[in-house]
């Protein structure tokens, strides 16, 4: 009889132990049934049903949600699989004592299903900043067209990101960037030599602006090495620190010799170096107390190549070649190489842009767009079929 009583007592004690173990394990399991909610935009929800033994703890799922990019918001059932943890880890987090459950009891215990709601918040995809390009005409210094000051007082400068100064010419003899001359183009637009030797150093950097004409109300001193439009551009950039200025080479009238400068490696190297010397390093020819080495340094942040048009259909008298399309790419590659080399020495990034036609046939004839976009910072697209646009449409 004593043996029977001892056996019954043992059964009762063992039942109580198994019951407490089940409560200690099942209670925290119930606590994880509430779904995880992350506040944010464009949330994508999915419901995942997994056995409790394979379920991830609530806190372990959070890092997987925040790290998911926007494209990966789709199959949410893959997320819990990355954060699988043993069931006893949940008990430890919930404050339950760590216990060893006999194998027989674990097999006999019911395996509940836990529903976990996972909310995925896609990361915002980066969007490039808007690029707004405006042109400043060289002859604005004469007051017939917009001046640099007009660009500021009209409020346009505050809306722009880049200003292109139009235009620089090509020396027909040396095939370099033409600087230091003041000679207007021929009056006849059908003259094939209309732009030969034309340039306006007086408007660029020699003309002294009065206080009334100047952007900041301060006249150009008579002995200052830099005056004219270039000094006004420098003042414009000081007033709008994010604004970048580029010298635009060519245009409708001054593209005659692009085919010649782009033809060989030697001509490309010489031409590019001359343009960087004049407009990036700022070594302008001295004349009437203006100019000199470094006098225009800091005015321009890069180069815009406006060849109208490689392969033909440009101004009457333009030189063309069968390899213009390929040579334009090589010319831009030379600009990129020399600008980057200079930038490595100065700790700056110098911009390179190119002007392209809106016409598909002209594009195919003269521009290898896939190669160009790997060389330039952005592309200016001809607007409404006009030459030397005053507003720039932009293709990133």
TrEMBL record:
The EC class name is hydrolase
Catalysed reaction(s) here are: Random endo-hydrolysis of N-acetyl-beta-D-glucosaminide (1->4)-beta-linkages in chitin and chitodextrins
- InterPro entries (alphabetical): Chitinase_II/V-like_cat (IPR011583), GH (IPR017853), Glyco_hydro18_cat (IPR001223), Glyco_hydro_18_chit_AS (IPR001579), Glycosyl_Hydrlase_18 (IPR050314)
Entries under PROSITE patterns matching the protein: GH18_1, GH18_2
Instruction: Return the EC number.
Output: 3.2.1.14
Which keywords has UniProt assigned to this entry?
Glycosidase, Hydrolase
One Pfam family from the record = Glyco_hydro_18
Q: Which domain of life is it from?
A: Bacteria
Query: Per the database record, which ranges form the GH18 domain?
Result: 130-396
Q: Where is this region: Disordered?
A: 182-201
Database matches in PANTHER family = CHITINASE, CHITINASE 12-RELATED
State the family it belongs to: Belongs to the glycosyl hydrolase 18 family.
Q: What is this protein called?
A: chitinase
Q: Which organism is it from?
A: Microbispora siamensis
